[in-house]
Specification:
By secondary structure, this protein is mostly helical. It has one domain: Fumarate reductase/succinate dehydrogenase, transmembrane subunit (3 helical TM bundles of succinate and fumarate reductases, Up-down Bundle), CATH 1.20.1300. It contains nine helices and no strands. Helix 1 packs across helix 2 (10-35). The longest helix is centred in the middle third of the chain and has 34 residues, at 56-89. It is globular, with a radius of gyration of 19 Å. The chain starts with a helix and ends in a 7-residue tail after the last helix. The protein binds protoporphyrin IX containing FE.
């Protein structure tokens, strides 16, 4: 079957990683936009969350889609890592890597698994939190506590490292690689992860430092 052959081919797996990566990136942008309302006030964030939950079917469909995309991304990613290890252990391995940021590229499976751990903690803390407490209160209570907040910040650093290589790799797979654009691309691989790091990590810091005391 053509799909089986596509999955087995190296470019097939890379295209799956790049496409699921792009979809996860779109999710991150929308989640970041929603979470940015925390900086405005607890009322603004609460009304954003209430508005979201007034469409339970849409939330359910998007949650299931996200889960499926995430599982495919992790599954194929770990498979590629395993395959690459087999090749690099072989006597015929010839290194052709021209990646600039080799720390980020070599740690992709570890930073990815850390983000998975983060998501398990995050979803059990927020999505399955008690329905009696408003979500805006849960956010302040959880992220204001030292160890929880610290774990979030470390997770966002791992996410930023993962994104810095993942974004670059995605553009290469989609063929966006031209001397004319490479300067912009190399800057974007820095700006994009920093954008998410500042926006997301700013939230636990906002509560931990007491800046969000009147939230
Ligand atoms: C400080 C930063 C973040 C805050 C304050 C935050 C807040 C929230 C909240 C309040 C919910 C529950 C929404 C609800 O059911 O009402 C949620 C769900 C979720 N968050 Fe985050 N989030 C943050 C960062 C992230 C990051 C970086 C990721 C991905 C790597 C992420 C992925 C998710 C996912 C997958 C869900 C479940 C969505 C669903 O229920 O369908 N979050 N987040």
């Amino acid at each position: 079957m053509w799909f089986g052959r596509f999955l087995k081919s190296s470019i097939g797996k890379k295209l799956i990683m790049a496409t699921t990566g792009l979809l996860l990136l779109l999710f991150l942008f929308s989640h970041a936009a929603g979470n940015a309302t925390i900086y405005m006030s607890s009322e603004v964030f609460q009304s954003y969350a209430d508005e979201l939950h007034s469409h339970p079917l849409i939330v359910l469909v998007f949650s299931l889609l996200f889960l499926a995309i995430f599982l495919v991304h992790i599954g194929v990613g770990l498979y590629l890592f395993y395959e690459n290890r087999q090749v690099s252990n072989s006597r015929y391995n010839v290194s052709t890597r021209v990646v600039e940021n080799s720390f980020a590229s070599e740690t992709m499976p570890y930073t990815g698994l850390f983000v998975l751990l983060f998501l398990l903690v995050h979803i059990s803390g927020f999505t399955f939190s008690s329905g009696d407490v408003p979500i805006s209160v849960t956010v302040k209570e959880l992220l204001g506590s030292f160890f929880y907040g610290l774990f979030y910040i470390v997770s966002f650093v791992a996410l930023a490292i993962h994104l810095s290589h993942g974004f670059w790799s995605m553009l290469q797979t989609f063929g966006i690689n031209h001397p004319r654009y490479n300067y912009v691309i190399s800057k974007l691989t820095l700006i994009l992860p920093l954008f998410f790091l500042i926006l997301f990590a700013g939230i636990p810091l906002y509560f931990m430092t007491g800046l969000g005391a009147s939230y």
